[in-house]
Amino acid sequence: ETLDQGLEKTKSGFLSKLTKAIAGKSSVDDEVLDNLEEALVSADVGIETTVQIIDRIEKRVAKDKYLNTSELNGILQQEMENILVDAPEAESYTFASTLPAKPYVILVVGVNGVGKTTTIGKLAYNFKKAGKSVLLGAADTFRAAAVDQLTIWSDRVGVPIVKQGMGADPASVAFDTVQSGVSKGADVVIIDTAGRLHNKAHLMDELSKIKRVIQKHIPEAPHEVLLVLDGSTGQNALEQARQFTAATDVTALAITKLDGTAKGGVVLAIANQFKIPVKFIGMGEKMEDLLVFDKHEFVDSLFS
Ligand code: GDP
């Protein structure tokens, strides 16, 4: 799906609340601001980011003395973009770009069910389409279903996969995968991991063990640690981002399932509150449904 189609629910909820917020009002007053705040929070922009946006609009109201409600949409859009000015961005990222290492190793982390496997499949598809050779590693060995799902994606996209038996040591699978990637001369190695958050110390140990064994082959690897978050869970996604970034060095974010949810505003909260670029957004279950995130396009499409 396209960005506009995918964001339909977030957009219609948000725009209708915005329209209600200014109904019957000619100037932006406290009541309008309160309603605006509510509209942002209900689109899951989150309290912290919402307060920042409202503060900026309040300052403009104070400065301009009188702000016409007809200008509010434009001003809101500007201020939503302004709060993202400092948000790091995966600058004009393309799958065809030359990667800084070969193989380029991406470790994918996230809680079960967020769309990790699907995102890996979509990434593999995009890299392959851009002419790169891809190798997958099934290091989520705790669930047989995870290995099965990744195998289905490897067949679907037509890229090889390294796996071991159920219950195998994830670090051992990661080791084998990178070794095979090196010997095959793969361009990209994408490794799935188990996302068990119930025990932070355990998660940290497991991820650092995986990193250590990967580094036996390639000292600079993993080149990317991609955290996958389910956008349809709204504020839960923010909480998971907090926990994972505390447990390991996450270098990029993917936010999935933005199609069919009214909570798409969470992308703004995540982009604003974490100093980690949101690189990809998931807009459906098919391999074509992964978009490279562009903050301006994203805010624009909320208003179009
Ligand atoms: P994992 O447990 O994190 O590996 O999650 P999966 O990749 O198996 O995905 C869980 C479910 O979410 C599956 O039914 C996927 O088809 C679905 N899913 C993943 N990404 C998206 C997305 O961007 N949009 C929608 N609508 N569904 C998605």
Automatic annotation (TrEMBL):
This is Signal recognition particle receptor FtsY. It is a peripheral membrane protein. Part of the signal recognition particle protein translocation system, which is composed of SRP and FtsY. The lineage of its organism: Bacteria, Pseudomonadati, Bacteroidota, Chitinophagia, Chitinophagales. Involved in targeting and insertion of nascent membrane proteins into the cytoplasmic membrane. Acts as a receptor for the complex formed by the signal recognition particle (SRP) and the ribosome-nascent chain (RNC). It comes from Paraflavitalea soli. Keywords: Cell membrane, Cytoplasm, GTP-binding, Hydrolase, Membrane, Nucleotide-binding, Receptor. SMART domains: AAA (SM00382), SRP54 (SM00962), SRP54_N (SM00963). It catalyses: GTP + H2O = GDP + phosphate + H(+).
